[in-house]
Amino acid sequence: MTCPHFTEEYxxxxxxxxxxxxxxxxRCFISTDSSSGIDxxxxxxxxxxxxxxxxxxxxxxxxxxxxxYLNIRRTPKDQEEPPQKLTKLEIKEENEADKFQFxxxxxxxxxDVAIDQENEKVKAIVDALxxxxxxxxxxxxxxxxxxxVPCEHVLTxxxxxxxxxxxxxxxxxxxxxxxxxxxxxxxxxxxxxxxxGGGGGNGHAVEHFQxxxxxxxxxxxxxxxxxxxxxxxxxCDEERDDPEIKNHLSTFGLNLDSMxxxxxxxxxxxxxxxxxxxxxxxxxxxxxxxLFGPCLTGLRNLGNSCYLSSVVQALFSIDVFRNHxxxxxxxxxxxxxxxxxxxxxxxxxxxxxLCSGKFSRPSHFVMASEDPSKIPFQDGLRPFMLKDIVxxxxxxxxxxxxxxxxxxxxxLLKKVxxxxxxxxxxxxxxxxxxxxxxxxxLGCNRARYSKIETESLALPIVKRNNGESFFEDCxxxxxxxxxxxxxxxxxxxxxxxxxxxxxxxxxKVLAVQLNRFDIVNWELKKVNTAVQLGGDAxxxxxxxxxxxxxxxxxxxxEESKSQVEWNELAMEQLTAMGFSVNRCQHALLATGxxxxxxxxxxxxxxxxxxxxxxxxxxxxxSEPSSTEVSSDHVSSLCDMxxxxxxxxxxxxxxxxxxxxxxDWLFSHTDDLAAIENATEGATDQNSxxxxxxxxxxxxxxxxxxxxxxxxxxxxxxxxxxxRELVDGQDVWALFNDEKVLQVSSLKETESTSYVYIxxxxxx
Length: 763
Fold this sequence. Notes:
Elements: E1 38-41, E2 47-49, H1 56-64, E3 68-76, H2 96-99, E4 100-108, E5 113-114, H3 120-131, H4 140-144, H5 152-155, E6 180-183, E7 189-191, H6 204-212, E8 216-219, E9 231-233, E10 238-240, H7 245-250, H8 266-275, H9 279-282, H10 306-315, H11 319-331, H12 343-355, H13 384-391, H14 405-418, E11 433-441, E12 447-454, E13 457-459, E14 469-470, H15 471-476, E15 482-484, E16 497-503, E17 509-514, E18 517-520, E19 523-526, E20 531-532, E21 538-540, H16 568-576, H17 581-590, H18 596-606, H19 631-639, H20 644-653, H21 658-667, H22 672-677, E22 699-709, E23 717-726, E24 729-736, E25 739-743, E26 753-760
Parallel strand pairs: 13-17, 14-20
Antiparallel strand pairs: 1-2, 1-3, 3-4, 4-5, 6-7, 6-8, 8-9, 9-10, 11-12, 11-16, 15-16, 17-26, 18-19, 21-22, 22-23, 22-26, 23-24, 24-25
């Protein structure tokens, strides 16, 4: 039967540069691995699952009226040997045709007929699709590599040869012949620290540094002309690049061009650790096992995307969040005409993918080991559409570089706030709450109260007298009294003030960031102090609630208001680095309230300023005479093509600064439609936080911990430990990308915990 719809309009080869969603349905995670495959629209190249699954191909047709589809399905080819783990020693280009058998069948969804597969146009389209790049490529090596740069100790290296060096040599102290490090100062060969996957070592290279202060060394058997050698600076405690490595080696009679690499590099050992996160030993623990089922689905690493995976897994561990987006999946996804760019759609898609259990099953593509009794891990879902949508337009989250999980959590929640679904419910408000700070002058005892809306707590690590740290102590530090320098506006005393902050309302979900970064010798360093949870990880915060004001107390005059609206994200980032609020405000004020990096650079240059710790004098900051924006500025923005409403809104957001208003408009394009539809002066009924509570007792149950593994603040790997119900039991599960494993202890989290997610237990 001839199909009248099989025309150039509805079926053609993809134009150059077209994004082709030929791996999975854009509305759910059904993929070409499904028994019925997926249907790829040959007009717009979006895909939908078939009638054997959720019929999103029909949804696509209902929205677009595109009738011609190519069904794509694949099955794994038989392999004589199990696939080898990826290593940097031998990286081969993957060819899916070598691993999978693909099946292509064109058909018309209107006529319900198959189209002749021998048709020349069908053949041309299939050939074009085979040559088109994959929508999601991942490189596990790149996920762990960091940009290595020289340091001053490498660039100013002074060499004083004192040893004869041989590539076949051994440690001068213990005779070990592997994991050897060559001191580039004097030429001494010493064994390194014991490394995962890299052989043994007794730490004699570190001892040599401690006794001589010779800080720069190179891993001897990582040397070759074709790869970057492992150079390490013990002074910086970081991997470094040595642009003069050839000359430095020649001092000891070594010719880099003639050397061959025989041991794994540090990056390769990190990769091995990522591929096998101590699973060998953990599986030997009593009760440890791979987990499968609802809410136990892994996410595949897209290349440095572990920060995203860990945060998303933590959010979807919260019942109210997961249930909302499961409902969204049922009511919104099939009707949305822009699924590939709609954040609501992709969150609904993730809810179904992570929580339904349909995709949480052992991989049938991978053999876990030579022992057939061992079950392989999951394949994991690929959240690349979510990453593209959230990262669009963001300087960092749009890249493939590693990012800070806490910063991403705050940014994702801001995106959720602007991407409301048909219910109108702002799910980001589940983390919002109000605090009240009481400031009392120590000179006149007068007090002032101020309220702040916030979405998280950034807490220091608190140590007890015996040196131990507990998470509950860190929580309680938020409501403890603090003394500060203060000049009273009322009595003019410089005796200082006492401040204390308490909760006015409790959030449904409390997000806590633990400050694991410190500045040492002008460098940001990771703090690995162990923080114990203690007990059942349920915390009573009832006494955190603000109490009645003291009877008869005198109040300080109201603080003069300023039009300065501090950059919230920059303030969060700077305070997380350990800078005080006063220092942050001085820096942001000096750098145009722009971003954390500019402010941090300014701070490093002005740390010795005598007034750096004094409160910013807001009275000296010029204020607009009214809340009205400049009509000239509005006209300038309108000349650029923006509407009057959008121009006014942007100018109000940026304190009447035209240049910043332009930047704001281009970075908030998704919000412009809502601005146009808003009525000036109207109150948003949905601004009421339906999740906030003032009820006591306020019991919080720890649901998730996002952990950062690695000694450097610039690299490493994020994993999430999440409390889930498995077989009727409350257990802790480790989510390490696509790997999900039950753990019997949270000892691993004590020195790596970074973000805690707590859920309020409502009666």
